[in-house]
Amino acid sequence: MAQLWKVVAVNPQGGILVRTGLSLAADKETERLATDSVVEEVEIADERLHYKLIQGSGPTEGWVGITLASSGQVKELVQRLPDSHVAAPVSPEMTCFMCGDNSQDYDAIAAEQAAAQEVARNKAADDKWVAEQVRSEAEELDARRMVLKRWVAEQDEEKNAEEELVRVEANRQAAEEAEKKVADDKWWAEKKRLEVEQEAAEEAAWLEFERSAAETAAREAAEQKTALLLAEQKAAADETARLQAVAEVARNEAQRKAAEEAQQKVERQAAQEAERVQAELIVLEEKERRASEEVERQIAEEAVRVAIERKATEEKEKRAAEELAREEAHRQAVEEAEKKVADDKWWAEKARLEAEQAAAEEAAWLEFERNAAETAARLEAEQTAADETARLEADAEAARIEAQRKAAEEATQKVERQAAQEAERCKAERQVIEEKERKTSEEACAAKKKSVEPMHVVLGRFSHELPATLIEGAVAALADEGITNTQQLCEVVEKDYDAIPLPALIKSRLRKTREEVQAQDTLAKQILLVATPQRTQIST
Q: Are 7 and 39 in contact (CB under 8 A)?
């Protein structure tokens, strides 16, 4: 007698999957084998049952799996039914009472006893079969209860997995926003550093221009003064020649001798004065050399310190937004140091020019004294007047240079104030742009989150007018294609979307959903592009 099997699997699809062949790659039957159906065994191979339908609904013949591994457990899909009862044979000692004269009586008694035994055996077999059926049904109910519990647990796990995916997506978006903010902070720090370097270069160029202008003015003044001194010396020489010619005619030999003695005395005094001036010139040159060395040493030390501080500043600029305040303080310190270096250079250059000017004046003065000594004592008043004129011109030159220095300092302070005001304005504009970008990013993220929904939620909106099995089948068909949310639904091209086996009504409604989600994605992208022109403008 053929073995019977019963379908015991319980799932939302309402039965188990049937294939046309033994292989798992064989074609699927469009209809499932319903739960509680009874089938006849044809053959069993590789834990799969080849059956013929006896009772229930589903394909009349096919291959089904006997068990299914799920969540680390093995559950039965079909269950073997107990064998049908068979009549027990009559005992041999009761079948033959054919001896003696009372054979007919014995036959009747034996027949009655055999019938009674047969009834008792049939009743016992029926009772046993009923008990087996009751036990089988109880086990089947337990199995169904366990399958239902597992199915509910699987649904909970899927729900938890979906919630975890949503939470992971939110964390990813938050990480992307944090990375974007760090990139913006780095961009602003780099922009500020470039602005600081540009301002320092402009300030250095301006100071270099002022120094060149001061040198040119000082050189022109020295040339004018030298020309004036040469003209005065020429006039004095002409006057001396005229006076000497008159003296040669008017003076007698005694006066000539006196003049010779006076000339010798003046020459000795001039020689002594020249030696003194030469010694003072040597001392001045030594002082100038030492001052130049000291200034160069200070400039070198300051340059090394500034280089070290600038390197430290570049190191700090690589950090996040919390280093901006410290970077600003360091930038101010660097600017003060560079300003101090520039001032030191300017004062050193001024000292050098003053020393050169003093040396030139001293040399001219010595030349003037040597020529004046030859004219006699009568020209001492003119020499005193010339000395006083030179001193006054030197004082005027010093006053002019001091006025130029003060004007340069005032111009520098004015430029620094303007730069500080411009920096404050840029900072305020950057804060406004950052606030707009933050709001724009929040709107874009809200639009994007709103546009992404799980497919079972979207299809669940149609549950009031469509059967639950139809909606669940559509969710399963989309899941087989890897589509679990609206974002993935929009990523599928139109040709592949048309090829998905879905009911026409659901496919049409999902097509409208695709268009709405694509419109929301387009809106989010447009929102994100709003801040780009503002960032470009503030960068310029």
A: yes
Q: Which long-range contacts (CB under 8 A, 24 or more apart) does 165-172 make?
A: 169/452, 170/449
Instruction: Give CB contacts under 8 A, 24+ apart, made by 25-31.
Output: 26/63, 29/58, 29/59, 29/62, 31/57, 31/58, 31/59
Place of tokens 């974007």: 180
Sketch the domain layout of the chain as residue ranges.
4-166, 183-247+282-439, 450-539
Which of 157-166, 244-253, 439-448 has the weakest average pLDDT?
A: 439-448
Say what the pLDDT of residue 378 is: 82
What was the pLDDT predicted at 531? 53
Residue-wise over 450-480: b if at least 16 C-beta within 10 A, else e? ebbbbbbebbeebeeebeeebbbbbbeebee
- For 64, phi then psi, to 5°, come to -135, 160
CA distance 528 to 525: 5
Question: Hey, what are 155's tokens?
Answer: 């649904």
pTM of the full structure? 0.22
CB 524 within 8 A of CB 447: yes
In whole angstroms, what is the distance from residue 168 CA to residue 452 CA?
Answer: 14
Contact 401, 506 (CB under 8 A): no
Cα distances (Å, whole numbers) of residue 471 to 125, 453, 456, 481, 513: 48, 16, 8, 16, 15
DSSP conformation letters of 439-486: HHHHHHHHHHHHH--BHHHHHHTTTTTS-HHHHHHHHHHHHHTT--BH
Q: Which residues pair with residue 64 across a beta bridge? A: 49
Q: What is the DSSP string of 308-368?
A: HHHHHHHHHTTS-GGGHHHHHHHHHHHHHHHHHHHHHHHHHHHHHHHHHHHHHHHHHHHHH
Is pLDDT of 88 > 70? no
Gap between the Cα atoms of 314 and 30, Å rounded: 70
Residue 24: CA count within 13 A, CB half-sphere: 3
Token pair 């003209």: residue? 231
What radius of gyration do the chain's Cα atoms show? 58
C-alpha distances out from residue 442 to 173, 274, 329, 447, 533, Å: 11, 87, 33, 9, 18
- Which residues have a Cβ under 8 Å from the Cβ of 361 and sit 6 or more positions away? 225, 390, 394
Closest to 314 measured CA to CA, from 306, 422, 539: 306
Q: What is the residue-averaged pLDDT of the chain?
A: 80
